[in-house]
Amino acid sequence: MSKKFDLEAEVRDLCARRDINDALCRYMRGQDRLDPELHRSAFHDDAWVDCGIMKGSADEFVTFAQGFLADLKGSQHIIGQVHLDVDGDHASGEVYFYAWHRIEQDGEPKDLIVAGRYIDEYACREGEWRIVKRLELIDWARTDPTTDGFMSETPGLLLGQRGNADFSHTRDWPA
To answer: Which listed residue, 20, 138, 148, 172, has the most CB atoms within 10 A of its CB?
Structure first.
């Protein structure tokens, strides 16, 4: 028994996956660049988030996360494998992540590494795929002393910045 190929359904599915991936990237970039509007744009207005230490609406979560991350010296969140099940205008997903945070502990800089998964529900409303439910699961974490010799000992490195000072915002190319 062969499965009939439906080109229109296949294109809708691919577009949904592309747009959900875009929401995931806006979420991560909004966190690392301390851009609350971009961060918030990953969620529908009625979204709910549970990250363990905070549960609430998308607005409450973004305010919490932006405040938490602003108190750090830096962060970088990386998306790993993404598994999505798309069904019409709804989808569910599991998104692996790896996150580095520069913290201060007992007066010393430390690297906090957290890895886990987001268990998500998504919806397409008025043509926009966004998160409607997100639960963050932590699979492992560690805190290590910093080892930034390369960065401090190598002249000429271009370092990422937070907020609008980052080159990705300014795009101040040499003449």
So the answer is: 20
Is the confidence at residue 159, as pLDDT, over 90?
no
Both tokens of residue 152? 């401090």
Q: Closest Cα to residue 93, out of 102, 103, 83?
A: 83
Crossing angle between the packed helical segments 58-70 and 7-32, to the nearest 10 degrees? 40
Among residues 58, 65, 57, 80, the alpha carbon closest in space to that of 31 is found at 65
Closest CA to 32 of 90, 95, 92, 79: 79
No. of H helices and E strands in the chain? Answer: 5, 6
In a domain, 1, yes or no: no
- The residue range of the domain holding 129 is 7-155
Indicate whether 166 belongs to any domain. Answer: no
pLDDT, mean over the chain: 93
What pTM does this model have? Answer: 0.89
Query: CA–CA separation, 56 vs 124, rounded Å?
Result: 21
* pLDDT score for 164: 80
